[in-house]
Amino acid sequence: MGDKYPNLNKSKKNSVRLAILLAVFSSLGPFTIDTYLPAFPQMMRYFGTTASMIQVSLTACMIGMSIGMLVMGSISDIHGRRKPLLISMIIYLVSSFACVFAPNIEVLIALRFIQGFAASAGVVISRAIVSDLYSGIELTKFFSLLMMFTNLAPLLAPLAGSAVLAFSLWTGVFLFLGVLGILLTSLTAWRLTETLPAEKRVPNNVREFFSNFTILMKDRTFLGYTLMQGFIFVGVFAYISGSPFVYQKIYGISPQLYSLLFSLNGISLILGSQFVKKMAGKIAEQQIVLIGLAVAFISGTAVMLIVFIQGPLYVLVIALFMFVGSTGIISSASFTLAMERQGHIAGSASALLGVSPTLLGAIFGPLVGIAGENSAMPFGSIIFCSCLVAVLIYFVLIKNAIKAKSIKSQIHS
Q: Which segments cross the bilayer (predicted)?
């Protein structure tokens, strides 16, 4: 493997370098979403629109990312990982610069859709590359390492956005993303080599495209992990879309302090993924997922209660810190469990795992603003309900599917 793919091998010497390289691409999603969050109030004034319409631009990006994941994941199974990624990065940088010149909110929404579609390739293909190279416990450990670096993005993105806003208008944020697109295009062209050999690729036909997704959706365990991750991230996206208004409008903090508080959750995500890395091989991945779900449910309940009684800011920050950290635990451990036995359709599997959180977040995220920018009740309710549904999915789909497989194997033995 090392000789065949000199830049992508499994040696310990290069594992950190590989994780950083792939994390740059995987971080494109969080950067595309999080960097312009501190600019929401400014953009609302600039375009003369409402908070809900500004949140629609976020929704459009998420929908574009969701559709893009399905398309780009399958295309990467057909044509390999490198070529689709390169084309997508070129589209990303062009759409980012185009956002700067958006004449109205409607055009910006359309451009954000394109930008999200292109960004999806970085997220889904980087994870497919990991599955190409690793399996079993090694996949869990490497993916946790990858997530440790990837989770720096939510910490750095709002800080970068706030720093840009300190000396420019909201357009500076999209200039920054355009420059990031240039960097990623260069890395794809000169640093990334192919990891999916031609003989392992799937046929290029429409029937095979839909067949792959049918196979995955019939796997109850895979479906369970996909939906569980999706609904737990509904709460995350509710936090992402609602926190600028909850923190700045209700609690009256500055954009700079908001960026700092938001960035704390990057630390929480890192701690969550590192917990998985430390526990991998010591306790079963199923137990790690259960720990993450328990933390999510407790902290999600706390968030709902705090916003309902209008509790102090520091208590809300602590509860959200724990909630976001739990998602780092759940996503890292469940990725390995979901990707087991997916083999040559890893791109399609990675796409479904990625599209579920993004699509569900896009659907439920705007509900955060349903009561107006001065109410946090939908914010707390959605976070709590997302945790509750995720727990139910685990016990109804995943645990029952595992029991059924265990009984079947005992009968055959």
A: 16-33, 53-73, 85-103, 109-130, 142-161, 167-190, 222-242, 257-276, 288-309, 315-339, 351-371, 377-398
d(CA 319, CA 300): 7
What is the pLDDT at residue 9?
Answer: 43
Q: List b or e across 54-74, with b for residues whose CB sees 16 or more CB atoms inside 10 angstroms.
A: bbbbbbbbbbbbbbbbbbbbb
DSSP conformation letters of 228-249: HHHHHHHHHHHHHHHHHHIIII
DSSP 76-136: HHHH-SHHHHHHHHHHHHHHHHHHTT--SHHHHHHHHHHHHHHHHHHHHHHHHHHHHH--H
Q: How far is CA 17 from the centre of its chain?
A: 21
* Spatial CA neighbour of 244 closest among 232, 233, 234, 259: 259
Evaluate whether 77 touches 346 at the Cβ level (below 8 Å): yes
What tokens appear for 309 in the block?
């009684």
Q: What is the total count of domains within the chain?
A: 1
Residue 338 lies in a domain: yes
Least confident among 133-142, 228-237, 282-291, 314-323: 133-142
Question: Model pTM greater than 0.85?
Answer: no
Q: Give SS3 for 179.
A: helix
Count CB neighbours of 104 within 10 A. Answer: 10
Identity at 222, one-letter amino acid code: F
SS3 of residue 64 by DSSP: helix
132 located within any domain:
yes
CATH number, domain of 36, equals 1.20.1250.20
Q: Which residues pair with 280 in a beta bridge?
A: 283
In a domain, 66, yes or no: yes
Task: Identify the band that residue 7 occupies on the pLDDT scale cut at 50, 70 and 90.
Answer: very low
Model pLDDT, residue 98? 96
Q: Is residue 126 part of a domain?
A: yes
Strand partners, 314: none
Which residue range forms the structural domain that includes residue 64?
13-193+205-405
Q: Which pLDDT belongs to residue 154? A: 67
